[in-house]
Amino acid sequence: MKLTTTNFGEIDIDESALINFEEGIPGFENVRRFALLQDDEMIVDWLQGIDEDIAFPVINPFAVKEDYEFKIPEGDINKLKIDRHEDILIYSIVVIPEDIKDIRTNLQAPIIINAKEKLGKQIILDDRYPLRYEFYEKVGA
Amino acid sequence: MLVLTRKKGESLIIGEGVEITIVDISEGKVRIAIDAPKEVQIIRSEVKKGIEDENKSATSEAAIDQLKKLKKTSKK
User: Fold this and answer.
1) Phi first, then psi: what are they for B25, rounded to 5°?
2) Is the pLDDT of residue A141 over 70?
3) B46 contact A CB<8A
4) What residues make up the domain containing A80?
5) Minimal CA–CA distance to B48: which of A109, A74, A110, A1?
6) How many structural domains are present in chain A?
7) Which CATH number is A38's domain given?
8) DSSP A114-131
9) Mutate to test the interface with B, among A62, A79, A106, A122 (most CBs of B within 10 A)
10) Contact assessment for residue A42 and residue A29, using Cβ atoms and an 8 Å cutoff
11) How large is the average pLDDT for residues A75-97?
12) What's the pLDDT score for residue B72?
């Protein structure tokens, strides 16, 4: 299917690869289907909404916080139908402000995707990791 | 919205398996104990609100031109 987006213009999307966020994403509960756009030129990938033209920049959190670790809550394991850890993709949402030195990511609420079932959810962890984790020094030119 | 009054030591039940007990009340604060099945997640409202606001910033502020200045090497 063809999709017209603000950030990427008109793009071709493989409908069979769409990821279903059955509860939406907090703040965007009405957007249930997303395409994962992998971008070779940027440090982030993108979760592009299908039902609404929104795009979340996302990053591999382990690339910016090497000792990041958490347990996926049991309720989320059930909702995402996870039975093998090889099926899981983990991302965290990035905020890219005009002053790029303030680039940050949300380690308190990572995105978990079960690639096999095409299910995704932004899960909420305890307070151990920050909502706003700045990581410019890890990627700055 | 249902509003009801409870005293210290009293409790209430929500749905199946969630019980909330008032443990202590002092100086404008209430301590509550929550008994719930482990698949029921309990989150402070302000944490959820913070995540919603941060998500809105992520979709509205994406300065893609700025992003291109950053190193690609650290991605994976």
Assistant:
1) -130, 120
2) no
3) no
4) 2-139
5) A109
6) 1
7) 2.30.290.10
8) ETTTTEEEE----TTS-S
9) A106
10) no
11) 95
12) 63
CA distance A86 to A140: 31
Q: Which amino acid is at B33?
A: A
Contact criterion met (CB < 8 Å) for A57 and B58: yes
In the predicted structure, residue B75 carries a pLDDT above the cut 60 = no
What is the DSSP code string of A6-45? TTTEEEE--GGG-EE-TT-BTTBTT--EEEEE--TTSS-E
Closest CA of chain B from A103, distance in Å: 9
* pTM assigned to the model: 0.89
CA distance A58 to B23: 41
> How far, in Å, are A77, A96, A138, B71 from residue A66 at the CA level?
23, 21, 11, 17
Q: Where are the domains of chain B?
A: 11-62
A135: tokens are: 């990581």
Please give the span between the terminal C-alpha atoms of chain B, in angstroms, as a whole number: 48
- Per-residue pLDDT tens digits for B34-44: 999 988 889 99
CA distance A108 to B66: 24
Using DSSP's 3-state secondary structure scheme, residue A48 falls into: strand
* pLDDT of B74 strictly over 60: no
Residue A53 has pLDDT above 60, yes or no: yes
- pLDDT of A82 > 80? The answer is yes
